[in-house]
Amino acid sequence: MPAPATRVMMGECSDILTELESWYQTDQGLNLQASLQSALEPILDTAFGYHLVQVGHTRQQPLCNNSRIHHRAYIAPQGGQHISLVAEAAELPLESESVDVVVAHHCLEFSAQPHQVLRELHRVLTPQGQLLLIGFNPYSLLGMVQRLRGLVGNSLWQEQHAVGRTRLLDWLRLLGFEQENCHFLSPLPVGGSGSGARLAGRLNAWSERHKLPLGGVYVMHAVKQVGGSARPVRRARSRPRLIGLSVPAATPRQGDHAA
């Protein structure tokens, strides 16, 4: 039987999952989901490897279905229709250097251990592995609304601790990541299909095209750098046996040879 503290943490996690998924079912959330998929598509289309993992605090927002990497896993703290593995982002039961691409969907701002989450993402990535971090931008109109809702008692946004781009870049550099790009999406909330929504959509497209750091959500693209040619020594860990992601025996598709 779980200890009382564990039961409290699991209850809080369940509430965050449910509320964040409910927010993604609103008009604004659905439009943001579509923008995220459009922004990720060109990145994932050029990402090669054998294993891709999406991890975060949602269970109903698969973002990698169009990836050319066939072996994909969706990890969340609780099970669901799309979930391949139930685990916390701060303690991933995966072997070190076993994943080629990680898509981290709101992993940091709803975690009590954001630094540990980043260390785990770094650990499981292969050298030159790609990390795509998706988070709410605290310095945006959406970020301001979220903070105000948290102040008036909204439980979801009270639990949020958004991480801005500058601070996130500092954390990534300390771990040896190198930034490739950062996309800011949806500066203005878009919902419905009226003339106001169409105007907001055009303004959002203009802002994203000019890479203005105003979007309500960012996609940080970083690559794990490892100095020299030797891989770091793997130290034994006093933890449950990690899940090995074996390399498929089949030859990669013809279009992948260029990688």
Structure description:
- Strand 4, helix 3 and strand 5 form a beta-alpha-beta unit.
- The longest helix has 21 residues.
- The N terminus is likely disordered.
- The chain starts with a helix and ends in a 35-residue tail after the last strand.
- Strands 3-2-1-4-5-7-6 form a 7-stranded mixed sheet, with helices on both faces.
- With 259 residues, it is an alpha/beta fold.
- The protein contains 7 helices and 7 strands, in the order H-H-E-E-E-E-H-E-H-H-H-E-H-E.
Which of globular, elongated, flat, extended, rod-shaped describes the shape? globular
- Helicity range of the residues? 25-40%
DSSP E strands, number:
7
Describe the largest sheet: 7 strands, mixed
- Stretches where pLDDT is under 50 for at least 5 consecutive residues are 1-11, 229-241
What's the mean pLDDT score?
Answer: 82
Give the strand line-up of the largest sheet.
3-2-1-4-5-7-6
Termini gap: 49 Å
Query: What class do helices, strands and sheet pairing give?
Result: alpha/beta
Count every helix, treating DSSP H or I runs of 4 or more residues as helices: 7
Task: Name the helix and strand elements from N-terminus to C-terminus, one letter apiece.
Answer: HHEEEEHEHHHEHE
Q: What is the radius of gyration computed over CA atoms, rounded to a whole number of angstroms?
A: 19 Å
The proportion of residues in beta strands is 15-25%
